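Long-time lurker, first post.

We've been arguing in lab meeting about whether copper (II) ion would sit comfortably in this protein at all. Half the group thinks yes, half thinks no, and nobody has a model to point at. So I'm putting the question to the forum: if I give you the sequence and the SMILES, can you give me back a predicted structure of the complex? Inputs are below. Any interpretation is welcome too.
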Amino acid sequence: MKKSKVLFGILAIVAVISLVAGCGSSDKTKDQPPAANQEQAAGHQGHSASMPKEDPMPMMKDLDKSLQDVVKQTKAGQTMDAQKSAAQLVSTVEKIVPHMMDANLKDNLRKAAGDIKNTVNSGKMDLITIEGKVKTMQEIMKSTTSHLQTMQH
Ligand SMILES: [Cu+2]
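Top reply:
Settle the argument with this. Predicted structure of the protein with copper (II) ion, as tokens:
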């Protein structure tokens, strides 16, 4: 009588343990990933979850400043400074691009900045050439700003 009760108890415990272990492991893998995705999407409406959580608008101002610097420094014949500003221009573009959802616009913005950088680095920077490329860049920046304004940050 006493012996069979103990045996039943052990069997019951083993059954419960294996049930819990089985359920527990499958629940974990099912529940976690969607929760993480949801958190990332919040606060970045209209944007894909892969975008950085920063506001690209201040970066557009940085971009404009670098562009003005390139023109100023080219006019003053400060080649080294103009090259630094052009490098800054390209790196700011790379920070803005992940926030853009228009592939053509991304491409144009990258090309315009790269074009300015290459011209400044070639050492053959005359003001008329630079100013022409800066004008192109400014047009693309206008489109970029209005494109970014269609999204919430
Ligand atoms: Cu964004």
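For your lab meeting: The chain has two domains: 1-42, 57-149. The helical segments are 2-41, 57-75, 79-96, 103-121, 127-149. Whichever side wins, do check it experimentally.
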